[in-house]
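User: Can you recover a sequence for this backbone? Please restate the input before giving your answer.

Assistant: Of course. Working from this structure:
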């Protein structure tokens, strides 16, 4: 007979989660949202519950039309100590572990794909899953006393949602092997030197520096910022010609949203309204196209 404690945990999911959160603080101040991981007694390790709440909060930010900047922080003087290893016995068998990791990858992908600008505010430890969160953010500002690393190797496990994949894309294969295979804890300054993180400041200046960055980000044309984030992230995963196509399309969209959208041989919406109203334009187009070459490549008499 299977006991409740033996039932594998479901993959991280926002389903079934509703505020108020128990292990996470979610605040909004106008266009700025702040997610604070709030398990200071466990160095904000990602428990099963915190993971669910984190995804729910990220999806709330994703669906917001008013939030422009998201700041992610940790309570109690530390960012995040990664997955809660004490709960891993609940992850289940090999297939169930893969399903759970897919949920974590969804969490990181949701964060990375937000059409908002994201800032990780790092103090204390950002290791394992905590470091993976920072790699899915657009900006990382850290206190000089912060420590980071991927120590999973010494627990006999491997990273699942960025520690090998995003890291390789950020700093290359050789350094990613060093960080993962050795498992050392590094000072914040090295993360900045490797371009994993953007900025390291004195501990006392961390909040002020994050606030300064947020102020600059909010001053930007937000549509241009969204487009820049999109073409940089997607272009980095594409070949040069595809990446250039993203740039070209973005340039056209920029012109459109800045007012020069009236292309002379475009419909200007008449195709959509024509379908709705079954206009003469719609009837002509469909009349010409409906049966055109519908008999296949060989013409029939």
């Amino acid at each position: 007979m299977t006991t409740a404690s033996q039932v594998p945990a479901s993959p991280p999911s926002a389903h079934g989660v509703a505020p108020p959160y128990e292990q996470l603080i979610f605040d909004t101040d106008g266009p700025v949202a702040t997610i604070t991981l709030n398990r200071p007694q466990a160095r904000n390790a990602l428990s099963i519950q915190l993971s669910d709440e984190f995804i729910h909060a990220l999806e709330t930010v994703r669906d917001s039309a008013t939030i422009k900047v998201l700041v992610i922080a940790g309570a109690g003087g530390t960012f995040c100590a990664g997955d809660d290893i004490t709960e891993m016995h609940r992850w289940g068998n090999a297939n169930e572990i893969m399903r759970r990791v897919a949920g974590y990858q969804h969490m990181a992908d949701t964060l990375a794909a937000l059409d908002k600008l994201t800032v990780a505010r790092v103090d204390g430890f950002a290791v394992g899953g905590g470091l993976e969160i920072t790699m899915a953010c657009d900006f990382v500002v850290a206190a000089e006393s912060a420590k980071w690393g991927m120590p999973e190797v010494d627990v006999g496990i491997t990273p699942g949602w960025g520690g090998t994949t995003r890291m390789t894309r950020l700093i290359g294969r050789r350094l990613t092997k060093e960080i993962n295979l050795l498992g050392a804890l590094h000072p914040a300054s090295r993360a900045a030197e490797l371009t994993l993180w953007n900025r390291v400041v004195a501990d006392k200046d961390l909040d002020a520096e994050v606030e300064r960055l947020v102020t600059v980000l909010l001053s930007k044309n937000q549509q241009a910022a969204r487009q820049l984030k999109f073409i940089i992230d997607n272009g980095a995963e594409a070949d040069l010609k595809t990446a250039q196509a993203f740039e070209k399309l973005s340039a056209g969209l920029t012109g459109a949203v800045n007012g020069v959208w009236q292309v002379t041989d475009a419909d200007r919406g008449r195709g959509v309204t024509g379908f709705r109203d079954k206009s003469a334009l719609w009837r002509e187009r469909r009349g010409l196209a409906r049966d055109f070459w519908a008999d296949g490549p060989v013409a029939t008499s």
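That completes the design. The CA atoms of residues 18 and 56 lie 8 Å apart.
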